[in-house]
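Forum: Protein Structure Q&A
Topic: Joint prediction for protein chains with partners

I've read a bunch of threads here and the consensus seems to be that you should model interacting components together rather than docking separate models afterwards. I'd like to see that in practice. Below is the full input, 816 residues plus whatever partners are listed. Could one of the regulars post the assembled result?
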Amino acid sequence: MTEIVVVGGGLTGLLASIFAVDRGAKVTLVARGRGGLTLSHGCIDVWGKATPSRALSRLRMSHPYRLAGAESLRTGLEFLRDLCHQADLPYIGNISRNLRLPTALGTIHTSALAPKSLALGDLRDNTPITIAGVDGFRDFYPELVVANLLKAGIAINDALQLPLPLSAARRDPYAMDLARSFDDQHFRDEVARIWKPRLSGIKRLGVPAILGLFNPQLAHEELQERLGMALFEIPTLPPSLPGLRLERLLQRKAMEMGVFVIEGPKVLGRVDGSAKPARVSGVVLQTAGGGRTLTADIVLLATGGVLHGGLVFQQNGRVQESVLDLPVSYDEGRQHWTAYSPLETQPYANYGLRVNEQMQPLGADGLPIYTNLFCAGGLIAGADRSGEGSRQGIGVATAYRAIEAALG
Amino acid sequence: MIRPDLTTDQCLKCNICTSACPVASVSDDFLGPKAVGPQAARYRYPHRPPSVPSLTWCSGCGICSLVCPHGVAVAEINIQAKAEIEKRRKTYLRDYLISRPELLGRLASPIASLANKSLSSRPMRWLLEKSLAISSNAPLPTFASQSLRTRLRSKCVDTPPDPGLESDQMVAFFHGCSSNYYEPDLGILAVTILEQLGQSVIIPPQKCCGLPLQSNGLLTAARRYAQANISWLAPFARRGIPIVGTSTSCTLSLKHDYRVILGLQDDESNIVASSTFDFFEFLTHQLADEIDQLDFKPLIADVIYHPPCQLRSHGIGFPALKILERIPGLQIRLSESDCCGVAGTYGIKQEKSLVAYNVGRTIFEQAKQSEVDFVLSDSETCRWWIAKHTGLPVYHPLEIMAKAMDIV
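Posted by a regular:
Agreed with the consensus. Here's the joint model:
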C-alpha cells in the first residue's frame, strides 16, 4: 500500500487526503493549526472575473489551471459536490455560470459553487430582497449591505433588525455562539415565532450566516418553511460559519475514510540523500516531545501561500518555502513585492513553486526536484487567487491532479 | 528557548481559537482564549496579573494553542496569567487538596475501603460540596488498597541498570498517580502488553507529574515536582531508555509543560521530553513491526473513541486508533466533542461543574443516542467523567487491546 503524507489541513489538503484514500493509499494528514477554511466564505470560487468554463481555456500555459487540466477541475468539483451532498450540506452552482452573491459589505461575490443556504441569495434571481441583522450581533450591518447594493444598482427592499430569544449575555456573541443556538430545535421554534409577524410581505430574506453549525441544512430548511419565504445567509467576518461547516464535514469525512490526522506539529521535509534521482523519504514532525520522523512513499505539500504559511516572506528579501526550502519563483528585493495601491494586483500574489503537469515542484533546470514530491493549492506560482477569484478552484483542481499523478 | 509571552505578537486576532474553544462555546462568562490571552496581554504590564477575571473560566484544555495557525501559545499564556492571579490570593483549601492526587493516594491507600465507602456516601458528598465546594456531581476516583509500586516492587529501580545486553529493549514506565494509587490494574496491563512485545519494563523513581498543581495556578509547587521528576528520569533518558506513560496528561507534562509553561529548559528537561512517549505512540512508532505481527482476537462491540484534549496537544494524532482499527469486530465511532469538559480538576469544582458538564454534553448525548456498548478514552479523568455522565463503562484503549491479545 502506498503511504502518502499530506501537509496542510485547508480545503486543498483535506481534499487531497480524501482523493488519495479513495484511490487506496494509506494517508497521514499533518496540519499545523486549523486551515484557511475557518476564515473562508465556504464557497468554491473557480473564476470570479468571468464565466469559468469559457475563461479557463484561454489562460497562459503556466497558470495552475492549465497545468492541472480542465478534466481535473471538473472531476474534483464533482467529487466535492457529491461529498457535500451525501453529508447533508448541498452545494449549488456550476462552472458555466457564476452565482452572484451579496457580501456583508454589500459588494457582489461571484462564485461557481455555494452552499444552498448562501446560493438562495443569488442576485441573478430578481425576487426582491430584504436584509436583516440580529440584535446583539455586532459583526453584521444590514444598512451597509443595502446601501452598497443599491449603489451597485441592485433592487433591494429594506434593511431591518430582528430580535433573538437570548437571555442577557455577558459578552458580545460570536457568530459561532449564535450558530450553536440555532442548532437547538427549541431555539429555532422560538425564533420562527418572534420573526414571523415582523416579516409580512417579504419574499426573500438575507441574514448573517449563523443558522447552525452541526446541522445547518436542517436549521435552514426548517426556518425557511416556518417563515414561508426564501431565506439565505451572508458570510460574516471570520471565523465564518460556511467555511467552518465545510471544514468540519471534510475533516470528519477524511477520518471516517481512514485518513490518520495529526494536528499541531510544524513539519520539516526529509530528503533521502542516497537516492538517484533525488527523493524525499518523509517528514519530521515537531511534536510536543520533539522531532518524530514519519516515513512516506509520497509527500504532498498543501501548505498554502503567504497567507497560510507555505511561503515565508523574510525581512532580508528572501521568499522561502517552509517545509523543504524549495526554490520559489519571486522578485528579488522587497520593494517589488507589493503594488503602490492595495487595490491593484499584487506581484507577491503570483509567487510560489513552479510545477509541471504532474504537480511536481521544479528546479532551475525545469526538472522535478524530487521524484516523489508533489504540491497543490496556494503554494503553486502563477495565479493571483484573490484577483482572479480562483482560490478554491485551483485548490480542488491541483489536489485532484497531484493525487492522480502521484498514485496513477 | 520557547517563551509563550513572546508569541503574543504573532496573534492576528483571527478568532480561530475562540471558535474552537470548548468553554467559550457553552459559557458567556468566558470571553474566549484570544480575548483574555493575546489580546489582553497587549495592555498588560509585564509580570502583573491581567485584569481579566474571566480568565479563571479557562479549563486549560489547550485546544486554542493546537488550532492556532500562527504559532501563538494561547493556552500557555493563559495558564501563566492564571498563576499570576493565584499568586495574589490565598489558595483555597479545596484547590490545595485536589491538586495533590499523590498525597491523597498515599494517605488513603492504607484505609482504601473506608475512604472509598465514605467518599461515595451521599452525606459525605453533600458535606464536601458545602464545606469545600467539591461538586457532588463530579466523579471521585476510588483508592486501590495496594499501589502499583507495591505490586510491582521487583521492577522498581532507583537508577538505570548498568549498560548490559538487554538495555536496548528496556522501557521505563511512568505510571503517574492514577496507575499507582487509583487504577493499578491498568498499569499492570500496560506493563504486560509491553513485555509481550519483547520489552523489559522497569519503574523509575517518580512523583506526581505536577499537572494538577499547574492547572490550579500553583506553579511554584508544580515546578518543585517537575524538577524532582526531571532529575530522576534524566539518567534513564540519557541511557537511551524510553519513558512510556499511559496517562496522556502526565506524558504531556514531561514533554511540553515542564519546558514551556514551567520554564524548565535545559539539557536534562530536553532529553526527558524527547525520550517520553504516550503508550500508543510508543507502540505504533517504536514497535510497529512487533505490532504488525500481532494477531488480534475478534471483539464484537460498537464503541466511541474519545481522544482527550491533552492527547491532542501531543501533536501525534490519535495513535490508539491505529491499533484499535485492527481488532476484528470492533466498530469505532469518533467522539463528536473536542473535550469532555472535566479537564483534570476543573469539573470537580462546584462553581465550574455545570460549564464542564455542558462542554461534554455532545459526547454524553452521542453516547446515549448511538447506543454504543462502551466508550474508550486514554485519560483517567475523562474516563471517570464520561462514565459518570453516561452511565456507560469507559475503558482505556489499552484494556481493549489487552483483551484482544488474550491478556485478560
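Strands of chain B lie at 170-174, 200-202, 243-245, 276-278, 301-305, 330-334, 374-376, 394-395.
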